[in-house]
Amino acid sequence: MSPVTLLALLGVTLTLSRIQALTCQKGTLNSVYNATELPLRWTTGQEDCEEGWGCQDTLMLIHNGPQVNVVITKGCTQAEDQEARVTEHRAGPGLSIISYTHVCRKANLCNDLANSVPLWTPSSTAAPAPEGTQCPTCLSRDECKESGTELPCPAGLRHCYNGILLLNGGGISTSLRVQGCMAQGGCNLLNGTQEIGPIRVREKCNPKDFLTCQSGNKLQFGPDVSRKPVEWTVSGNKMCASGEACQETLLLIDAGHKPLLVGNKGCASSGTQDFTATFIHSGPPGVLVASYYHVCSSNGCNRADNSSVLLNVLPSPAAPAPGSLRCPACVDVFGTCQNPKVITCPMGSTHCYKGNIQLTGGGLSATVTIQGCMAKPAKSLLKNTQNIGVLSVNENIEGEPAPKGGVAPAPYLAWMVGLGLSLALWCGVFCLPF
Ligand SMILES: *[C@@H]1O[C@H](CO)[C@@H](O)[C@H](O)[C@H]1NC(C)=O
Ligand SMILES: *[C@@H]1O[C@H](CO)[C@@H](O)[C@H](O)[C@H]1NC(C)=O
Ligand SMILES: *[C@@H]1O[C@H](CO)[C@@H](O)[C@H](O)[C@H]1NC(C)=O
Questions:
Q1: Where in the chain are the domains?
Q2: Ligand 2 centre and the CA of 91: distance in Å?
């Protein structure tokens, strides 16, 4: 074969693949709108598909009285061509689900639906009959408020739906809490639908599947936090994944000077049984490390509102007879101990401790540096403990080789000192994105 023939063949191949590879509209949207804002229109980006792939267009409306959840996904697909189709998965009045799906290869950007008009008629916002059943009505990607809005149902609807829709695929991954009016009872909003375009849909109606928990972190220093209860409330709420429970974790570290209290509230991984426990990981005469962990499974049950849950079970500090050993004492989250105070250790102390504990989990990441008194034979504060409540813990004792995979103290802690933040540190500074 001559080089010219080979080039010609290559040229043909390249031309062919250029014909076959499509450019499609690309984009996703998943958002709740006031029904009065519909119909909507939109613009999208583009993407180049692999050879042989088509363009897909999916629009889904979940309509619930005054609100509509709009889901759009567009992009390349391996699915076969499919005529544009409007499907009423659950007809109104009351809760309704309707979709538009289309797969095409006839031209670039053929997935060109640009508004919700094909699915939206003004009649679908018909006013409900003034009398009859009332249902809590909600459409939310967070929780439905416990004392939510009760709205009258359209005439003839006698059942209240209370569930969660799980949507996955086509770049959409979401849980949608739904409460509203239906003609029939039970957990059957989807009416047998399992897929809408590339999106797999499921529903669950057991309240255990959409538990809402209090959520947030709190770090607090203070001379008295190991003796006097301090407030432990958080402003956030979080809807947990299916099967998860609520948890609250409180950790106290006291080296005899400026103790630290770390609190976390949120979801506990699925399969965790309900329980309440307190632990004394390390105690007098040396550094005190103690924790409280509570797991429960009803809405907002992680609601201990002050630190007495832990303090009440600590051994009362009998005035310790001072020994002869003196150690620097310090608990800090700024990478190093800023202002250790040299203290006289209680009788029985045999050496000084210096190290740090890395805390991660529940949206929190911090390295707590610790110096204080210690009694033989203990060298470690945490022994082999790897978790304190929802927090993963990793202790590094100075002078011992750091365990493999240890993380260096985070630089943003030093940055916080520069900003001169107060010593009560809240989530927002410390929180990692979930
Ligand atoms: C929806 O919009 C209408 C008119 O703009 C307004 O009166 C109504 O309060 C809104 N409803 C909700 C739930 O925001
Ligand atoms: C449920 O689905 C069936 C078949 O898919 C359809 O004929 C019926 O109208 C749907 N019911 C409602 C209430 O939407
Ligand atoms: C702390 O909480 C307990 C119950 O959890 C309550 O009895 C007590 O009064 C609270 N103390 C303070 C100081 O808020």
A1: 23-210, 212-420
A2: 7
